[in-house]
Design goal:
CATH architecture of the largest domain: 2-Layer Sandwich
Largest sheet: 5 strands, antiparallel
Shape: globular
Bound molecules: flavin-adenine dinucleotide
Number of strands: 21
Structural class: alpha+beta
Distance between the termini: 44 Å
Strand order of the largest sheet: 6-7-15-11-12
CATH class of the largest domain: Alpha Beta
Helix content: 25-40%
Radius of gyration: 20 Å
Strand content: 25-35%
Order of helices and strands: HEEHEEEHEEHEHEEEEEEEEHEHEEEHE
Amino acid sequence: MSDLLARIGKDGLRGALQPGYDLAGLTWFRAGGPAELLFQPADEADLALFMERLPADVPVTVIGLGSNLLVREGGIPGVTVRLSARGFGQVEPEGPNRLRAGAAVPDKRLAEAALAAGLGGFAFYFGIPGGIGGALRMNAGANGGETRQRVVEVRAVDRSGAVRVLSNADMGYAYRHSSAPADLVFTSALFEGEPAPPEEIRAAMEAVTAHREAAQPIRSRTGGSTFKNPPGHSAWKLIDAAGCRGLTIGGAQVSEMHCNFLINLGEATAYDIERLGETVRARVLASSGVRLEWEIKRFGRFPPAREIAEFLGEG
Ligand SMILES: Cc1cc2nc3c(=O)[nH]c(=O)nc-3n(C[C@H](O)[C@H](O)[C@H](O)COP(=O)(O)OP(=O)(O)OC[C@H]3O[C@@H](n4cnc5c(N)ncnc54)[C@H](O)[C@@H]3O)c2cc1C
């Protein structure tokens, strides 16, 4: 038994506790290191009990479906929480024009549930490969829609194990960002749409798919848009203008198709991917004076002798 697991103990917990869990397979990049301890709670009450018990000095990291995530090879210290589809994977109607979705529900399934309920405004979710927990944290959006337009309230468990309910305003939404406290694990959310004819909703979903197929390397191992669009700029145009389209480091490449996407060509390490990202940032800074900001979340420690400086120390 790992030291951390021994400290926490399993008594009364119904979820799975797995020390040294390799997270690479849980990320879209299919690269990266382990979690010191992975906890997959059985349900919200199990998560609350776990958080209440967890010693205050143990760091907690939450991951969703790993589509916006890079885990460094040194691994994530402390506990990594991942919500299981069994405990957090339900979507149900809750009052007129509203749906409640568990945080492990894939965005795509929320879009399908909205179609079944005759609710418009959710088609953008059809093309986003993450889950609702990640969408709530990232204010995920596409094709003119954003999470903040649909959220009524969010349920969460905080670091002390208390269940909290946050309003849309409490989520503090901005572009690809929520300022809700970082220690919250979102467990479900209530969403609202507008009644719409099914054929209209279906057409909007088909348009989302067509756009993705044409413009994004969606079948590659990637983390989606790597950098946020800086105010007044498109990240991909700055990257292209800096000559980075197709740039390759180790097994990682700037996508030829959409140069704000980084791709694992097969054998890339998280180190290759992050070094490529920082190289792109350094070149964009040199060519345009713009400091790109990572949209992809990077978690965990660098392995020994493999630290990567921001802008490779050139900024
Ligand atoms: C091919 C591709 C296309 C993409 N296109 C888009 C797009 O069009 N628009 C867009 O917005 N994004 C896009 N993304 C990025 C990604 O899908 C979204 O950011 C998504 O919302 C991340 O959800 P996730 O479940 O994968 O979260 P993860 O990547 O696992 O985590 C992302 C963040 O969410 C937090 N988080 C996850 N679950 C919870 C929870 N339950 N409670 C609290 N915090 C949590 C994590 O701590 C982390 O900070 C794309 C990604 C890929 C690979």
